Amino acid sequence: MYSIKSKKKEMVELSFLYFRFRNLFDYGFQKYNFFKNLISYVCNISDYRLIRRIFEDMYRRNIFTEKKIKGQGIYYLFNPFNREYKEEIKETIIWH
Fold this sequence. Notes:
- The protein has 3 helices and 2 strands; from the N terminus they run H-H-H-E-E.
- The model has no long low-confidence stretch (mean pLDDT 87).
- The protein has a single domain (4-78), classed as Orthogonal Bundle (Arc Repressor Mutant, subunit A), CATH 1.10.10.
- A two-stranded antiparallel sheet has the order 1-2.
- It is of the alpha+beta class.
- It starts with a helix and ends in an 18-residue tail after the last strand.
- The chain has helices at 4-22, 32-43, 48-60, and strands at 64-69, 73-78.
- Helix 1 packs across helix 2 (32-43), helix 1 packs across helix 3 and helix 2 crosses helix 3 (48-60).
C-alpha cells in the first residue's frame, strides 16, 4: 500500500509533467486558483488541503515565479527553467 508521502510525490510529478505538456509558461502569470483547478483535474482529487500541499511542494522546488500586485494579490508563473517573461499580467484564465 502507498504511503501518503509517496502518493503526494507522485501527484507532484504528475502535475509537473502535465504543466510541461500544456506549456503553461505561455499562459503567463495566473492566480493560485488556476493551478488549483488544474491539479484537482489532473490528480482527480478534491481535498483542498492536499491540493495546496502539492502546489506548495512545487513552489518550494522553484517551479513557479511569484509576482505580487498591489490590490490584486499574488500571481504565479509556471517557470521551471527560469526563462525571462516580458509580458505584463493581463487577465486570469477562467476554466469553464
